[in-house]
Amino acid sequence: MRFVIVTGVSGAGKTTALKILEDSHYFCVDNLPIPLIEKFASIALEMNSEEVQDVALGIDIRSGRALDELEQVLDKMKHLGYHFEILFLDADDTVLIKRYKETRRAHPLAASGRVDAGLKREREMLKFLKQKADYIIDTTYLLTRELKQEMERIFVENQKFKNLMISVLSFGFKYGIPSDSDLVFDVRFLPNPYYVDELRALTGEDEEVYHYVMDSPTALTFARKLEDMIEFLIPNYEKEGKTSLVISIGCTGGKHRSVSIARELYRRLKDKTEYGLRIEHRDIEKDAVRKK
Fold it and tell me: In the chain, what are the domains?
């Protein structure tokens, strides 16, 4: 039996994660009182059967003062031989605040109405859980389907997981450099499909544009050197405790060259990394030029 404790900061996706596990045939329980966790684990092991093979337990800030007891409860369970895994969901504070504003919900610890103050206090209370976590998924940039893919990779397909989500992001410099970028690469030195009449209305998602860019020896050399550098940097970022890495690739408008290079980097990394990997084209639809 697999016993998973799902936790994390409010708004990072714990409820969604539990639903994903439930859809994957986990028996899920949310917000169980802390003193009952050990008893629940004991019962879960006893009822191990074809119907209930895996269990997920949701724990969050709603446990209140009882959270102070949780560390001792988990240490005792480990001492008694209970095997459990902890999944911690996290996200950037600016994104969490935005999510709360969009849903018009109040943060459980924001008595004064200040979400940022509530998040700061919550992070302190959950710090020990994050330190004990077996898996940390940063949902800052994840769509629900991408979170589902990551969780299925860990808890259904039993693949290895590293606590780092890599985002390959194409953009246009004319619209500004993405503020959340960790690494920024300028590919405006590459041949520009915009000046080819039959390619102007297309984007790097179209094969004609992609091959126009990647058929350039300069583009191939750059892609190879970029891949080599990223493969060197990733494990070093992970050692520093980074859980999210945004690699931004920019051209003038964010439609042709940057999209093509982002696709190529994603392709090169996809089958060679155990880390979470996603791709996004921020400006591909801006000022779109369409064929008549």
Answer: 2-155 (3.40.50.300), 165-281 (no CATH)
